[in-house]
Write a structure and sequence with these properties.
Elements (H helix, E strand, L loop, with lengths): L2 E2 L23 E4 L9 E4 L12 E3 L2 E3 L2 E2 L5 E2 L7 E11 L9 E9 L5 E8 L8 E8 L2 E2 L3 E4 L6 E8 L5 E7 L7 E7 L10 E2 L16 E2 L5 E8 L3 E8 L7 E2 L6 E3 L2 E2 L2 E2 L1 H4 L7 E3 L3 E8 L5 E7 L3 E7 L10 E6 L6 E4 L5 E5 L16 E6 L7 E7 L5 E8 L4 E8 L3 E11 L1
Parallel strand pairs: 22-25
Antiparallel strand pairs: 1-4, 2-3, 4-5, 5-8, 6-7, 8-36, 9-10, 10-11, 11-12, 11-13, 14-15, 15-16, 16-17, 18-19, 19-20, 20-21, 23-24, 26-27, 27-28, 28-29, 30-31, 31-32, 32-33, 34-35, 35-36
Amino acid sequence: MMRRLARQRRFNKNKHCNVANERGGRGYEIPVRLDKTCGPEIRQCTGRFAVKYDTAEWDNGILRKMFADDTGMCGRQEERYFRMKITNYVQEFITDDEKPFDSAHASTLLELHDGSILAAWFGGSWEKNPDVDIWTALRVNGVWEQPVRVASRRGIAMWNPVLFRREDGTILLFYKVGKTIPEWVTYYMESKDEGRSFSAPQALTEEGQGGRGPVKNKPIRLSDGTVLAPASLEGELWDAFVDISKDDCRSWTMSGLIPLRRVAITEKGVHNVQMIDRPYNKHYIYGKGIIQPTLWEDAQHNVHMLCRSSSSRIFRSDSSDGGKTWSLAYDTGLPNNNSGIDLVKLGDGRLILVYNPRENLPGYYKGPRTPLAVALSEDNGETFRIIKVLEDQRGDYCYPAVICNDKNKVMITYTWKREKIVYVSFDIEED
């Protein structure tokens, strides 16, 4: 028997809908992007599933999606009736308490040919410290093997590993080396034996310092075989771009920087009243800018990116020429706490986004890294709804990496309180 989670009521723009937690607990407020019939924010559930619209129903663990009609009243539209469920859910630590590092962060993962999982991250006493190295671990037959240090340089920190596979089957492990982020040099290593061993490191490019190559999230291979690596530069300003490879990651060409319309609320510590009084503009970005893109190609072969930003929102840019040039970045309406995100396109074209649906705290440049949620888009990233909350307790749950296979199996890793890396997998099934 279905239980109604929320009463129907007229959606008041710029307010929150009162959606109850299916488990009887308190809800939390998450701003999300909605379609034109709804306002910009609604209250989400903290239960196993969360809902995007004003009304939702449960039926034996299946989320039933409800829509707002063009009058503003919420009601079910039968032609858009949707049922889905998450099955075969796994959530586990990659390492035990005897791990050979105190802190772990910025993970990446790759599914191997036999269904095993290869994961990598940086670990040491703490991010930026000179003892931070690159580590990997293999999940074979459902069990994680002990972590292995695969890259180290005494006295210099290592950062942000990223895994990717060439078409010939070679696994590439990209990572950064440098005492500070502006000093980063990108290196990569190759594995011919499914992650059991890696070659000596090589510099990715000859251009020297900067965030060349994949900076946090995995590259994507376009329909024409081109590889795009989501990249960014950090310093006084933040800027995103893509590195383009036409020869399967053997050489790279840097795209132009993503166009940004930066605006300043303060000028030398003095409030800019004219800026404060301006109407909303989706292109305005506050603070340093955007970094750490995540990419996808749509059915029309256009390429899109979502980016972490300093502006409390996930920003987006689009390209119609294979990533060479990009549109002026714009606010998606999805909240961002100035922390990493990642996205993957399923085989049927739907998108899975993993992120912290929180904004920056008032007067502070970052926001809480909890909750950590999985969201689904069925309209090429125009809207997302949360389908799974991975973590919602007090703590630092962040920097997700997400991949999928051709069977709609979703695989995720993320940072758990800066102490461990968590692995999650599940299947998305329709009913």
